């Protein structure tokens, strides 16, 4: 009986000491600034930062160009039809020059060649359209390259970080400390996150811009067809 009491008291004392030691341990919180985390990622983080700035620049610049190219009055083609029907060629050209967008430039090219064979006019309009589409798509290959290359750069940083961690382990021998591994693991994880973030931004930006360009190209094609119909009607009168 006495032995049982002694064992119970010992267990209670051990439990109380464990509780006290646990209470004495303060939770460790990580208070790292964004710049310090960025620095832990290693030199490749600067490459990813440069790519992110380039991606944002291309997205913003192409958005402005496409938005500017899409601005045209809904009654533009109706006014062109009225001017052409009334024989007001100069008024139609003046209306085209009022708008700085691909549709107006294509229609202006067609009007300026009025009187030539219809096939020549259509070819001239298509050539102008091809130039305009190439101008709209300028810069998109850079964005596509960033979308595919940034995650690969992040993966390269992951490999470098793991090599660094294992190298530190091999140098430490039996005296392995977690601090020896933390630098390489930080490099591995942060470059992966950075590469994915930059790649995702560039990927969605590329697809969004491509979609807007496709909508504008559709408008250009429909305007070309409508203008050719106007010329056909003029020839059939």
Describe this structure in words.
The structure is a single chain. By secondary structure, the protein is an all-alpha fold. It has one domain. 84% of the residues lie in helices and 0% in strands. The chain contains 9 helices and no strands. The N terminus is likely disordered.
State the oligomer: single chain
Series of secondary-structure elements, N-terminal to C-terminal: HHHHHHHHH
Helix percent band: over 70%
Supply the number of structural domains.
1
What's this model, at a glance?
The protein has one domain.
Pick out its properties:
single chain, 9 helices, 0% strand, 237 residues, rod-shaped, mainly alpha
Produce the secondary structure layout.
Blueprint lengths: L1 H23 L9 H7 L3 H27 L5 H10 L3 H10 L3 H11 L5 H20 L2 H33 L5 H59 L1
Helix pairs in contact: 3-8, 3-9, 4-5, 4-9, 5-6, 6-7, 6-9, 7-9, 8-9
């Amino acid at each position: 009986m006495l032995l049982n009491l002694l064992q119970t008291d010992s267990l209670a004392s051990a439990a109380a000491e464990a509780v006290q030691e646990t209470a004495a341990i303060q939770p460790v919180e990580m208070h790292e600034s964004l710049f310090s985390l960025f620095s832990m990622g290693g030199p490749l983080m600067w490459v990813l930062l440069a790519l992110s700035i380039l991606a944002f620049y291309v997205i913003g610049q192409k958005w402005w160009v496409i938005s500017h190219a899409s601005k045209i009055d809904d009654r533009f083609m109706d006014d062109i039809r009225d001017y052409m029907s009334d024989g007001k060629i100069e008024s139609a050209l003046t209306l085209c020059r009022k708008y700085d967008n691909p549709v107006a430039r294509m229609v202006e090219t067609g009007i300026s060649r009025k009187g030539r064979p219809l096939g020549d006019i259509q070819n001239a309009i298509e050539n102008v359209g091809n130039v305009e589409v190439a101008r709209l798509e300028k810069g998109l290959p850079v964005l596509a390259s960033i979308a595919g290359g940034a995650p690969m750069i992040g993966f390269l940083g992951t490999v470098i970080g793991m090599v660094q961690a294992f190298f530190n382990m091999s140098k430490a021998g039996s005296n392995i400390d977690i601090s020896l591994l933390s630098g390489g693991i930080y490099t591995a994880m942060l470059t992966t996150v950075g590469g994915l973030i930059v790649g995702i931004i560039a990927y969605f930006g590329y697809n969004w811009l491509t979609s807007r360009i496709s909508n504008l190209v559709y408008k250009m094609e429909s305007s070309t067809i409508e203008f050719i119909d106007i010329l056909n009607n003029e020839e059939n009168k």
